[in-house]
Amino acid sequence: MKKVFLLILITLFTFLFSSLLIGQNISGSAHDFSSDSWNTTGQICIVCHTTHNSDVTVANAPLWNHQSTAATFTPYSSASIHASTGDPDASSKLCLSCHDGTVAVDNFGSQTTGTQFITGSSLIGTDLNDDHPVSFTYDQALATNDGGLFDRLEYCLLL
Amino acid sequence: MRIKILIVFILANIVSAQSIVNSVHNLSVSGSGTVIATSEDEICIFCHTPHNSSPRQPLWNRSDPALNYTLYISSTAQAVPGQPSGSSILCLSCHDGTIALGNVLSLPSPISFTGGITTMPLGDANLSQDLSDDHPISFIYNSTLAGQDGELVDPLTLTGPVLLENEQLQCTSCHDAHSDVNGNFLVLTNQYSNLCVTCHDKTYWLSTSHRNSTATWNGTLPDPWFHTTFNTVAENGCENCHDPHSAADHERTMNYYDEENNCVNCHNGNVATQDVQTDILKPYAHNVYGYDHVHDPDENNLVNLRHVECQDCHNPHAARNSTATAPNANGYLEEVKGIDTNGNTVDPIQYEFELCYRCHADSPDKPGSPTIRQIGQDNVRLEFDVLNPSFHPIEGAGTNSNVPSLISPLNESSIIYCTDCHASDGAGSSAGPHGSFNPHILKYNYETADYTPESYLAYELCYQCHDRNTIINENGNSFQQDVHFKHIVEEDAPCNSCHDPHGINSGQVTTSDHTHLINFDTNIVFSVSGNLQFIDDGIFHGTCYLRCHFRGHNPRSY
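^ inputs. structure came back:
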């Protein structure tokens, strides 16, 4: 038993390390707006974060500096789903503050008249009915109820 | 410690067969099946996408196939299948073989598969767009349907694992694409037909041998259970005869196109003890091989278009190994339709003869009588009527209260079956009129030609019940000497020349001439001075007007 545990630990560590080393960070990603012409600051983080006077529309938002979406969303629904989906909240709402297409990407800081809107395959829209459900409670009760879901504890240990 | 146990438990769970990962539905490069992608390592992507799904539920990542399927049709189904809908159309986006497996909405170009596979390879998993040979899907299955059909469970009682989708039966009612624990992604094992009987409540099924027999196959080809892994008749249940997909005979999804093959591939000595096939192949038989798809289970009780299939006489959902006393039908004839003594339909039959009357009574295409007689009648229902002047006791006890030749336990009040005379010949053959080396599917030899030297074998059939020594007793009473011994032994006249073994229809006789089954064979017995007649003068006495073997009785009495 001890050996198995050790083996799992080693595997987990190796996995973590390698992802730190080879995983790409934000610079150079689709979210690196430092060299976009509309971002005169030339900073990466500023489009989403600010160190002071952050936006608190969305509960627990991480020092948020981007205009939050006020759209009404159609959540995913299905006859066979057991989770109850409502309006997106928390970090999902933050993502949708660019990806729903109602708020301009360059509406950050005090800017509210931005013109850069997401198009193409990255546009999720406000109709989330064709998207994987988000912002639902995923607990042991749901896993048991559904029968086809991992218990969250199992799931965390898997990663 | 607790955590450690938990982790081991979790890992075991993941590698267990419950997961899609180890099933042939893992089409990714890590899949274990033969149809897998060359490099795509996502498992869910072949069916699901997290965004921009279509149809939206269940986050579907594939295009719908065109709806021009050939649908299931059957004369005995009340359900009305429509073009595939609901989740069935999702399954068919791979399983009808029209759309490349790697064609997913979320990728600009199709995922490539090993071996250059694009669409579903031909085989069991490719159902094609012809769904007429598959169990029907996409039909409303509600209490009304169950009521109309009479042999379906009320769907309100279905609580899983078999589930309907908006009251409709879909592929997902029987299959769960994510879990292959029961094989074929079935939601429930079909061993003992567990899955089928969740919905199908066939009358009498619980008592039939086809559900209960533990008989096994002796290994001689053909394999009667070619599409299952089960080893007994009971375990195969419905699948002994039915094939839920790509069935050879589309209607009612039968294993074989030729009706009889569904039966004889077990009833050939390879599974069932009795080799019915060998009997059927004899020269005089109810030749089920002679007809193809004339029979329909929905046909009238009275057969209008001459044919015979095993299913005309046997109900495979009800037949069982049990005996009965005449005239009652035995278990092999459980739950079959017939025609009663008055020519009315009965369903099911109570008496065996009612089954025979489907074809041998009022049927327009019935076989004719082999002997030309004074009074001709091909309708055996009329020949055996208990109001007739004489008849063999099929429908009821005979009229003659004095038949000394009867061999015990038979007596004057006995009733016999049609199958006491008409049955497979030879020791150890199958019961019932399957086939014989004797004409008219007679169980024993029965000579009808004039000038047949008397012997036990010549009239073997008659002598089964009528004691030969009593019949032709040279030293017996005057009747035995002058009538039977004289004619049968000395004149070599066959029983059939004077006696009509079935009976003489009362509607065709005006006098009491035709007692004792007397109805002359007019190719042997001729009229004298225009008169051909037997007059019953009481017990063992009679008078005949006839000419036979160049001698005239005009009249002659005994």
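The radius of gyration of chain A is 19 Å. Residues 26-159 of chain A form one domain.
thumbs up if we can close this ticket
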